[in-house]
Design goal:
126 residues, mainly alpha, 71% helix, 6 helices, Four Helix Bundle (Hemerythrin (Met), subunit A), globular
Length: 126
């Protein structure tokens, strides 16, 4: 049962990443978040990042060390960031959010994709 729950959580993370990356298609720089359409995208991205963190947290609650052992990702920053979004939403910095999406989400996507589909060659998204 835990394996099924973990896989469902990982599939949820993969879906959040896909939506997040799709919504980022029109965002070229952090300042794009300052426009009205950009603000809507920004809010959406923060919610997706929060949900990714929540799923990671639930996986780690269910099976401590899973993400590091199986996905080879360090999760403490992801979980802490989820807490910051949840409790200090108004303090978020557009530069940091842009950096996370551009430079950290692709490696998480790669780790989740490779775990869920081990028969597929490693996925590289850059």
């Amino acid at each position: 049962m835990p394996d099924q729950i973990i896989n469902e959580r990982l599939e949820g993370i993969a879906e959040h990443i896909a939506v997040l990356q799709h919504r980022m298609e029109g965002i070229i720089s952090p300042t794009d978040f300052k426009t009205e359409p950009g603000q809507i995208v920004y809010d959406s991205i923060l919610m997706r990042l929060q949900s990714i963190g929540e799923n990671i947290k639930k996986i780690e609650d269910l099976e401590p060390g899973f993400c590091e052992d199986q996905l080879h990702i360090e999760v403490s920053n992801i979980i802490r960031f989820r807490d910051i979004i949840s409790h200090h939403y108004e303090l978020m910095d557009i530069q940091i959010i842009f950096d996370i999406v551009q430079n950290h989400i692709p490696s998480l996507k790669n780790a989740v994709t490779n775990y869920l589909n081990p028969e597929i060659k490693p996925y590289i998204d850059r």
